[in-house]
Amino acid sequence: KQEVTQIPAALSVPEGENLVLNCSFTDSAIYNLQWFRQDPGKGLTSLLLIQSSQREQTSGRLNASLDKSSGRSTLYIAASQPGDSATYLCAVRSSNDYKLSFGAGTTVTVRA
Amino acid sequence: DTEVTQTPKHLVMGMTNKKSLKCEQHMGHRAMYWYKQKAKKPPELMFVYSYEKLSINESVPSRFSPECPNSSLLNLHLHALQPEDSALYLCASSFRTSRNTGELFFGEGSRLTVL
After folding, report:
1. Minimal Cα distance from B100: which residue of A?
2. Ranges under pLDDT 70 in chain B
3. pLDDT of residue A1
4. Which of A31, A42, A46 minimises the CB distance to B105?
């Protein structure tokens, strides 16, 4: 069974600092990995999708890397802003399982 | 336009009520999903529809009854719920389902409170 872990559970940084969010998974046989953002009481917003054949994806200030062999993905957010405050979840779709396995998320607070 | 629309945004119901949650997408996606999310927990899969047919039921109690009237609509009918069913119910869609799936898009959710 795929298990997805996100550490730390919470993170507080001053505005302008770069954010590094970690996601680890136990089964390297994955189809893709997706990063989401969730604001309190709201739905999930897709940030980046990385296919298993890719090593990274970029969108604006966001960059996500994938290392399947070590079972890790990292989301980098450059020059953080207070508007980046949210919970960030990673989700892994195993290549032999229809399910999307979610991590518990990292709650980020960017202080002005 | 990547948008999944859910109604209502908030719903309060008694344990004897019957209500429905609705979800709509116009992205041409053929896979639609219901997830349940409790506070400070990740979403849990409930149902998956693929080409308007139920393909996955994650052993969800029968008091939750999904329906997919057409490729753009997904409903979740609620009956005789328990207070512990109070949660954020999220609808999602993707271009394909099963292993060969693409990006998953979520709606804003319906916040359900069962009294």
Report:
1. A31
2. 1-2, 96-101
3. 86
4. A46
Please state, rounded to an integer, the average pLDDT across all residues of chain A: 95
Burial of A97 (0-12, 13-18, 19+ CB in 10 A): middle
Question: What pLDDT shows up at residue A97?
Answer: 64
Residue B44 to residue B58: CA distance in whole angstroms: 9
Return residues 70-109 of B near A (CB < 8 Å). 88, 90, 92, 97-109
What is the arithmetic mean of pLDDT over A106-111? 98
Nearest-CA distance A79 → chain B (Å): 26
Asked if the Cβ–Cβ distance from A46 to B97 is below 8 Å, we say: no
Chain B residue numbers touching A104 (CB-CB < 8 A): 41-42
Cross-chain residue pair A103–B109, CB shorter than 8 Å: no
Q: Is B46 on the interface with A (CB under 8 A)?
A: no
For the stretch A3-12, pLDDT in tens is 999 999 999 9
pLDDT digits 0-9 by tens, A61-70: 999 999 999 9
Beta-carbon contacts of A60 under 8 Å, excluding residues fewer than 6 positions away, are none
Q: What are the DSSP calls for B45-86, one per residue? A: EEEEEETTEEEEE-S--TTEEEEEEETTEEEEEEES--GGG-
